[in-house]
Design goal:
Elements (H helix, E strand, L loop, with lengths): L2 H28 L4 H8 L3 H29 L1 H20 L4 H29 L3 H32 L4 H4 L1 H15 L13 H20 L6 H21 L13 H29 L6 H7 L1 H21 L2 H19 L4 H11 L6 H9 L7 H27 L8 H21 L2 H6 L1
């Protein structure tokens, strides 16, 4: 294979993997502006709205550890393609849903598919770009396009609802999924399979139940008597998961992976990142359409500058990381995000919401750098698992952020951004601390 042909194949492989991540991130937020239209059409209260959003992120968070392990065992490309197919089927089912319960089930199917493709797409990028500088640029593009998908969700949702109806936000995923499957199958090189690794069904069940129960309990706080039992069940099964994984000879999650301070700190920063960003995007959508009386279309247009900020920041992060290392972009991104959260805490009009949101969305500068830190430490045979752990942490943060911040927004007699955005500011301050731990100079130099 000539150098030109190899470079072209690498570019098309990167496009395929970025496209898969794009549709996953797009679907995480596109529903935010559609919940009012969905409730008007299908019924259901605030709890139903939150479950339509959270069922996707819970399934996504709960399934990625297993998907990462399966990718290492059977080949990351195979699992990625299968996940993309399931995601496309789930999207079609969402668009046909006749009721809220059916929509929640279909969203869960989407989340399962997304859980399969997301960690495997990251593992495949790491394998296809072994040289550190090329990998930094590739992760910057991967993170930038995905971040654009995350922030484009409200914009695309507002436009599609205005021009068609809420069902169109799910139909639009199908052609993207088909294109991603074709490109991935043709241009992405398969990772070596490790069939000697055993499956861990007990770890799968306990991990899935723990994450699902915790997020579900937080959503139900203040709405039903199921909240505390669900939270307790989540904590107990989480403890059982840790005990079981410590005793298994070939666990789904080898706990020694957390012995690396850069990996553990970067994964924690990833959890905080998504907790704050997912929760904020939901709060802004509800706040603009509630107290500020904006339509779904207007809400989408008002969030367009946030999309631009996220895309520019994430793309610039790859270049900054390649030149200065990950510490600089991570500190810049998290510090600006904390400032934006403080601005939003005092915002009471659409222009102030947009201004604060743009500053907060500069958090995207931190995302590819954070991914680079986390993926630079695990051994090659655990690339898929490490990607699964990192993205499980992030998507767990997203599910919890949607549940906690959405509940705090609506806790009083009138919606207010003050309390949830104060929590977000504190979260980004904690992410700065994680950055300092993850990028300590002597540890980064030792690698």
């Amino acid at each position: 294979m000539t150098t030109a042909t190899s470079a072209r194949r690498q570019r098309l492989a990167l496009i395929a993997l970025c496209l898969a991540f794009f549709i996953v991130q797009l679907d995480a937020t596109v529903v935010n502006v559609a919940v009012e239209a969905i409730r008007h059409d299908l019924g259901g209260g605030l709890g139903g709205e939150q479950w339509v959003i959270a069922s996707y992120t819970i399934a996504l968070a709960a399934g990625m550890l297993t998907a990462g392990s399966l990718g290492d065992r059977y080949g990351s490309r195979r699992v990625c393609v299968l996940g993309t197919v399931v995601f496309g089927v789930g999207s079609a089912l969402c668009s046909l849903a006749p009721s809220i319960p059916v929509l929640i089930v279909a969203r869960t199917v989407q989340g399962i598919g997304a859980a399969a493709l997301l960690p495997c797409s990251l593992a495949l990028i790491v394998r296809q770009f072994p040289e550190p500088r090329e990998r930094a640029h590739a992760l910057g593009l991967w993170g930038g396009i995905a971040a654009i998908g995350l922030a484009t969700g409200p914009v695309a949702g507002g436009v599609l609802i205005a021009l068609v109806d809420w069902r169109a936000i799910f139909w639009v995923n199908v052609p993207f999924a088909v294109l991603a499957v074709v490109l991935t199958s043709r241009y992405v090189v398969e990772s070596p399979a490790q069939r000697n690794r055993r499956l861990d069904p007990s770890g799968l069940v306990l991990g899935t139940v723990s994450l699902s129960a915790l997020a579900g309990g937080l959503i139900q706080v203040g709405q039903s008597g199921w909240a505390l039992p669900l939270i307790a069940a989540g904590l107990l099964t989480g403890l059982a998961f840790v005990l079981v994984e410590r005793r298994r000879r070939d666990p789904m999650l080898p706990l020694e992976i957390f012995s690396s301070r850069p990996f553990s700190a970067a994964s924690t920063a990833g959890l905080i990142f998504n907790f704050c960003l997912y929760g904020t995007l939901l709060c802004l959508s509800l706040y603009l359409q509630g107290p500020l009386h904006q339509s779904a279309f207007a809400t989408g247009m008002l969030t367009l500058p946030l999309t631009v900020a996220i895309g520019i920041g994430a793309t610039a992060s790859g270049r900054l990381t390649a030149r200065f290392g990950p510490r600089v972009p991570m500190l810049i991104g998290f510090s600006l995000a904390g400032l934006g959260a403080l601005l939003l805490a005092a915002a009471g009009s659409p222009p102030l919401v947009v201004a604060g949101g743009v500053v907060l969305c500069c958090c995207s500068i931190a995302m590819p750098a954070m991914t680079s830190v986390a993926m630079s430490t695990p051994p090659e045979e655990h690339t898929g698992l490490a990607a699964g752990v990192l993205n499980t942490a992030r998507q767990t943060g997203g599910a919890l952020g949607t549940a906690v911040l959405g509940t705090l927004l609506t806790a009083g007699s009138a919606m207010s951004l003050t309390v949830p955005m104060t929590i977000v500011a504190l979260g980004y301050a904690a992410a700065v601390g994680c950055t300092l731990l993850a990028t300590r100079r002597r540890e980064m130099a030792a690698r």
